[in-house]
Amino acid sequence: MNDTLVPIPELDFCPRYKANLETGKIWDDERKSYLKIKPNLYGYRYSTFNVNGDMRRCSVHTLIYSAGMGVKSDYWKAMRLQINHKNGKDDDSFKSLELCSHKQQYEDEYDPHVRSKLGKGTRLSKEDVRDIRACYEVFEGKVSYFAHCLSQVFGCHYITIKNVIDGKSFKNVG
């Protein structure tokens, strides 16, 4: 293996895991292989890491940036900064990551991929919200399945449907 592997401060320099800054992958020394990590619903890659018996769920881009900078994420979070993917969420290499403010992440001139972060831009009507809530009252099954199915019907993100069901949005609609 010719890859340069770097310790990860975010994982307390646990000797089991190392970061490959060039590829944006995490090496597992016990398994002698790179972790296979699939993206979550937002397109970010997460995994659970066993650090000295303590299970931690972390994003790969946070671990790569932590390793590249040699600091924990508390360092940039204290300055109210976030990690931005310059080349899109599917590239976790260190060269494609940068720190920016939350506001900058949603500016076209700063991030050409901003449209992918904002979603489809459709807003549910009050009638849609009432229909969703009425359907959910008679639904028997997992909330996540319901939200995923209806998100496709209404052309929105599943979190939008889940927030309607949980009463986190459209509170004024009865």
Can you offer a commentary on this structure?
With 174 residues, the chain is α+β, with helices and mostly antiparallel strands. The chain folds into 2 domains: 113 residues, Alpha-Beta Complex (Homing Intron 3 (I-Ppo) Encoded Endonuclease, Chain A); 41 residues. It contains 7 helices and 8 strands. The strands form 3 sheets. A 4-stranded antiparallel β-sheet has the order 1-2-3-4, with helices on one face. The protein has a two-stranded antiparallel sheet with strand order 5-6. Strands 7-8 form a two-stranded antiparallel sheet. Helix 6 packs across helix 7.
Cα radius of gyration in angstroms: 20 Å
Strand content: 15-25%
Overall mean pLDDT score?
87
List the secondary-structure elements in sequence, H or E: EEEEEEHHEEHHHHH
What would CATH call the class of the largest domain? Alpha Beta
Output the strand order for the largest sheet: 1-2-3-4
Per CATH, the architecture of the largest domain is: Alpha-Beta Complex
Category from helices, strands and their pairing:
alpha+beta
Number of strands: 8
How far apart, in Å, are the first and last alpha carbons?
A: 61 Å
Q: Which regions have little confidence, pLDDT < 50, spanning 5+ residues? A: none
Q: Specify the biggest β-sheet.
A: 4 strands, antiparallel
| Count of individual domains | 2
What share of the residues lie within helices?
A: 25-40%
Q: What overall geometry do the principal axes of the alpha carbons give?
A: elongated
Q: Helix count, per DSSP?
A: 7
CATH topology of the largest domain: Homing Intron 3 (I-Ppo) Encoded Endonuclease, Chain A
